[in-house]
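Hello Y.,

Per our agreement to keep a running log of every chain we model this quarter, I'm adding this entry. I've kept the format consistent with earlier entries: sequence first, then predicted structure.
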Amino acid sequence: MKATKLFRFSIITIILISYHQNLFSQNMDSDSSAYQFTSKTDLAATSVKDQYRTGTCWVFSGLSFIESELLRMGKGEHDLAEMYLVKKDYHARAIDYVRWQGAKNFGGGAESNNVFDRIKESGIVPESEFPGLNYGEKKHVHGEMDELLDAYVKAVVSNKNNKLSPAWIKGFDGILDAYLGVGPTTFNYNGKNYTPGSFRDDLGINPDDYIEISSFTHHPFYQHFVMEVPDNWSLGLVYNVPLEELLQIAYYSLNNGYTVLWGSDVSENGFSHTNGVAIVPEDDIAEMSDNERLKWERLTEKERKEQLYSFKEIVTEKTITQELRQEAFNNYQTTDDHGMHITGYATDQKGNRYFKVKNSWNTDNRYQGYFYASENWFLYKTLSVVVHKDAVPKEILKKLKL
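Predicted structure for the entry above:
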């Protein structure tokens, strides 16, 4: 996504900077927000989790999505272990990084496809079997571990022996064991014995049932391509569709009972965690209606910005086109920032539509860990979505040759 503005620089740095800058710069009085939402579709989801001081939004959002899938399939409510997959992904990423002789990005961030790749290879376990807090903290804090792992693989690549020893990956895994735990090979859950693989199979999770979809013009539509973002270290493929079809897929999925795994940029001023809203205000006076233009022309640039992002009134949003979206990606204005989970959609008082988004930043905002992203924000800032194949309209599947 999950998952960078998901993952152009160090994901830890970007997410924490974006999060705290928004807390500081946005209106802190959540009761003052003008936005009132009426739910249109609200699908089942598990409780909001907290990735805390880590760059692991990709796995928190991915497992939240899978937990909703289990609810949809009648498998009951489960709390799956994020750190089990983080550990497996770090192991796979280290091998890949060393094989590429350090010519790739390395860190705790990843993409949505890595959730499904790791589950397919290594299974999954309940949170109770692998909380991943083996280092004296009550919440996930990965700064020290991330720095150690980064320094370790760089040292392996730059070693002066002119060859690699077979011991290096054991040493790397030893760091993971120390911080996250060794992890179970067998466990008992709800009175039944499992391995991580048999637990996956018993839950009915089939990673091949899910596809990742995006919309960019630098690749042909209805074909797949490798998303060019640094944390796509495993070169995961996404299918490419026109922007209007990306939006169609999101609504079709939600209207048919399937939630949506979402990778997006959250670093713009229009994103407010505190107020629980993400919008794209129209800030170009030339594009405003006559009445709006008269109102905004009386204000200074500073006053204009303050009002546009105060969330004290519902503002007109920018019209998003395929070209505008592409330009933002091309110039790094839209980057791979954060993975989240769309569980429904709603309307505001004026009938504008918003996606209801489950985040992984705890529950300390207006909507107890959720926020509402406008349709314009989705069109402008989406990197990709992951949905079940059955959640894609048949005419689009046919175009994708699926």
